[in-house]
From TrEMBL:
A single MF term (Gene Ontology): ATP binding
Localization in the cell: Cell membrane
Membrane topology note: Peripheral membrane protein
Domain of life: Bacteria
Family affiliation: Belongs to the ABC transporter superfamily.
Organism expressing this protein natively: Streptomyces iconiensis
Name the record gives this protein: Amino acid ABC transporter ATP-binding protein
CDD domains on file: ABC_HisP_GlnQ (cd03262)
Keywords: Amino-acid transport, ATP-binding, Cell membrane, Membrane, Nucleotide-binding, Transport
Keyword Nucleotide-binding found: yes
């Protein structure tokens, strides 16, 4: 079986600063793959490489068996054209810490935007699906509200529905609950739990260790641009082997 994501010695630098220093990991289809680690360890950069928001400098990154961002020919790599990059990105949904909704559009319009613009779907079809997706994230009664009229938890659920509207095969979550008031975290995690139950492949950067333990199939601890430790959430969180992992967990658990 092909892994949904395969990272082989992935490196990424910003100028002289090497932020990813050889990331090796595999995410199996249908799995919830959690990434934990201190601030600045390269977690967001890694997700951004998967979603073409950053370009890998060295190593190979594959999504569903396809090399991300490049074409390989006779052992050489050639950068993909914009149109080809857009096609690869279409299958990947991403949810950020900040909800990034379009403020001048209602919840339904936010969810409809990509299907209308990218897939050229009809307005009626896009609206129908948006309403169904908003129902799925528990917002059936908020379809025509603007982001400013929604709580942070509701906005983040709209953001999840918006990502789902393109029917992605992979969802990336970058600390989706970190910007929320504590009482709103649960409703977002509940939606993510449902998605996992439906078999969505998800990579989740999170500090919610309870969620990772309960929902995660695999977990890696990243520090200073490398994967320090990996395994089941139970093993890594319950029985960390490395001092750096132990020290980090003692601060967050
Ligand atoms: P994390 O998500 O684990 O907190 P990041 O991937 O956001 O870590 O950042 C890792 C390091 O890369 C940090 O030191 C950050 O300052 C740096 N970095 C991230 N993006 C850029 C950028 N566009 N230009 C320069 N440095 C960056
Ligand atoms: Mg980050």
């Amino acid at each position: 079986m092909t892994a949904m994501v395969k990272s082989e010695a992935v490196h990424k630098s910003f100028g002289p600063v090497e932020v990813l220093r050889g990331i090796d990991l595999e995410v199996q289809a249908g799995d919830v793959f959690c990434i934990v680690g201190p601030s600045g360890s390269g977690k967001s950069t890694f997700l951004r490489c998967i979603n073409h928001l950053e370009k890998v400098n060295a190593g190979r990154l594959y999504v569903d068996g396809t090399l991300v961002g490049y074409r390989e020919k006779n052992g050489k790599l050639y950068e993909l054209r914009d149109r080809e990059v857009a096609a690869q990105r279409r299958d990947i949904g991403m949810v950020f810490q900040r909800f990034n909704l379009f403020p001048h559009m209602t919840a339904a319009e936010n969810v409809m935007e990509a299907p209308l613009q990218v897939k050229r779907e009809s307005k009626a079809a896009a609206r129908k699906r948006a309403v169904a997706l908003l129902e799925r994230v528990g917002l059936a009664d908020k379809t025509d509200n603007y982001p400013a009229q929604l709580s942070g938890g509701q906005q983040q659920r709209v953001a999840i529905a918006r990502a789902l509207a393109m029917e992605p095969k992979l969802m990336l979550f970058d600390e989706p609950t970190s910007a929320l008031d504590p009482e709103l975290v649960g409703e977002v995690l509940d939606v993510m739990r449902d998605l996992a139950r439906d078999g969505m492949t998800m990579i989740v950067v999170t500090h919610e260790m309870g969620f990772a333990r309960e929902v995660g199939d695999s977990l890696v601890f990243m520090d200073e641009g490398i994967v320090v430790e990996s395994g089941t959430p139970r093993d890594v969180l319950g029985n960390p082997q490395h001092d750096r992992t132990k020290s980090f967990l003692s601060k967050v658990l």
